[in-house]
Amino acid sequence: MVQLLFKGNTYVTKHIYPEACTLVCSST
């Protein structure tokens, strides 16, 4: 579910899943 948000809207993901965004920033 979170992965779909990453592919869909990173901006929205940052607001809904701030912790998850951190993981993406670290992976990227």
- By helix and strand content, what is the structural category? mainly alpha
Give the strand content.
Answer: under 5%
Count the domains: 1
- The percentage helix is over 70%
Layout of helices and strands:
Blueprint (H helix, E strand, L loop, with lengths): L1 H7 L1 H7 L1 H10 L1
Helix pairs in contact: 2-3
Task: Give your account of this protein's structure.
The protein is an all-alpha fold and 28 residues long. The chain has one domain (1-28). It is built from 3 helices and no strands. The protein has helices spanning 2-8, 10-16, 18-27. Helix 2 packs across helix 3. The longest helix has 10 residues, at 18-27. The radius of gyration is 8 Å and the shape is flat. The termini are far apart. The model has no long low-confidence stretch (mean pLDDT 63).
